[in-house]
Design goal:
The protein is built from 17 helices and 19 strands. By secondary structure, the protein is α/β, with parallel strands linked by helices. It has two domains: about 240 residues, Alkaline Phosphatase, subunit A, CATH 3.40.720; about 100 residues, 2-Layer Sandwich (Gyrase A, domain 2). The strands form five sheets. The protein has a seven-stranded mixed β-sheet. Strands 3-4-5-6 form a four-stranded antiparallel β-sheet, with no helix packed on it.
Amino acid sequence: MPSTPVPEMVLPTGHPSVTDLMPALVTGHGPGVEILGADVVDAAAVVVLVLDGLGAELLEARAGIVPTLAGLRRARVRTVAPSTTAAGLTSITTGTAPGEHGVVGYRMLVQGEHLQSLRWRTDESGDVRRSLPAESIQPIQPFLGTAPTVVTKAEFETTGFTEAHLRGGVFRGYRSRGALVHRVVEALAAGDRLVYAYDSGLDTVAHEYGLGDASDHELRALDDLVRRLLEALPSGVALAVTADHGLVDCGDLGAVDLDEDVVAGARTRSGEGRFVWLHARPGRAAEIHDAATSAHGDIAWVASVEQVLDERWFGPVVGPEARARLGDVAVVAHAPLGFTDPADPGASRLVGRHGSLTADEMFVPVLTAVV
């Protein structure tokens, strides 16, 4: 495998952060006010549009094909670790980091079972919406206990993850981007001051095709969506566009297996391809750390859970439930690749990926305008 330069690790510590946005919009105070702008926070109403996968680095590189997005007032913030949808969206809506809200990744070890957080299913028991209710996994009230309108895909309405990160919101589902605009305008006409909207298109396309022509077409479509939304918003309403994470194209290196000596010391694993948690057999955490460093130190950062906690990767507060979901050793890819997981074979086919601590994945934009 060709060696790649080791990039700078971007830790999700301090401000500005995606966790700053919702508290500022709901309370009118906090570091998010400076990020969003006082005119946005004080607007008659605010629409928050989350575009899954729209990293700040990608936006800057593709600014020439997205004139509407590029023309908005722009700030740059950090997302959370891991830089993945479940953790990122929950952090945006709750205003807290994963160590506090407890959604610590894509596949989490919860009560001895592997919970796939986006589908709220476990490898062992299938659908666990009843046996593992969302509020027991993620106890923080989204939107600081308010009830904004939530405009997202109609098929998400009854999912466990929707309950985990959007509960309390008034659900208005859509099946097309035109309907997304309609639903937002409908909510504003009803007098809502805060509307939260979500589009997953870029993330979906990039997973399958990478960051090439297909994702560029999707970016143009998103730019058109934002243009149409701005045209439809009433005067005095603000728009804030952000994202849960960025993306890395892994088309050249793809997916690689963890070394046998690394796996041998683990009783199981969790996380995702670019942020793997190894849960050690008793007394074997140091052995796993050394083996992973030796085998994969040229393509990944290897950290003990003690280092992760000391450096606050999961935020300044890590509750006991969240702590129990972390493994003993993290193997976090910095090269453009993912690690395979026999329990999640479909993930090996992904081209565009995220989850790690590179700048491409960790920096996301906050784009704002007041109509």
